[in-house]
From TrEMBL:
<dbReference type="Pfam" id="PF00071">
    <property type="entry name" value="Ras"/>
</dbReference>
<dbReference type="InterPro" id="IPR001806">
    <property type="entry name" value="Small_GTPase"/>
</dbReference>
<dbReference type="InterPro" id="IPR005225">
    <property type="entry name" value="Small_GTP-bd"/>
</dbReference>
<dbReference type="InterPro" id="IPR027417">
    <property type="entry name" value="P-loop_NTPase"/>
</dbReference>
<dbReference type="GO" id="GO:0007264">
    <property type="term" value="P:small GTPase-mediated signal transduction"/>
</dbReference>
<dbReference type="GO" id="GO:0003924">
    <property type="term" value="F:GTPase activity"/>
</dbReference>
<protein>
    <submittedName>
        <fullName>Uncharacterized protein</fullName>
    </submittedName>
</protein>
<comment type="similarity">
    <text>Belongs to the small GTPase superfamily. Rho family.</text>
</comment>
<dbReference type="InterPro" id="IPR003578">
    <property type="entry name" value="Small_GTPase_Rho"/>
</dbReference>
<keyword id="KW-0342">GTP-binding</keyword>
<keyword id="KW-0547">Nucleotide-binding</keyword>
<dbReference type="GO" id="GO:0005525">
    <property type="term" value="F:GTP binding"/>
</dbReference>
Amino acid sequence: MDVLKCVVVGDSNVGKTSLIMTYVQSAFYEDSIPTVFDSHEVTVNHGEANKSRQLVVCDTAGQETYDRLRPLSYPDTHVFLLCFSVNNSTSLSNVIEKWHWELKHHSPNTPIILVGTKSDLRASAPTDKAVSSERGCQVAREIKAIKYIECSARHQDGLHRLFVEAIAAADMPRGDNGRADGGNRNSLNGLKTLCSVL
């Protein structure tokens, strides 16, 4: 059975663990214990042939304390889910200022999906903290993410789609330069499919 490795990164408290555990367990997981590193395996059926795959989803620490340890989980990653919370604009700023650069430094050819978590909390966030879908799409283009997807672990909105897209990204053919887009960014999905707000 093929094994695909998906690593989830982003600031602390953006909902990475809830996203992963809710997907794996099919029930909302609300635990606030900070993660250092954890991995979860799930068998998925994907593609036209409905082929069984083993998806290994790695949960990483967002705290600065683990900045030197976290990249040890990056080798052999097929796709990164780079998370921020749509009710916390600082977490999106850190996508640009920290996370994107860390991933590009350690794994420059691995595709990134930008994930806006906690979509159910946007409406209740203070105006200066809320991140619009349009801003999420804009940042996805800036960091050359292959997709922008919003989801809510609490309501399980967008979770299935997120992992379907992650598997598809992991399966993207690599060009001579090792990039998942074959070296041609223009061949990737346009804005309408790049941004998936569910």
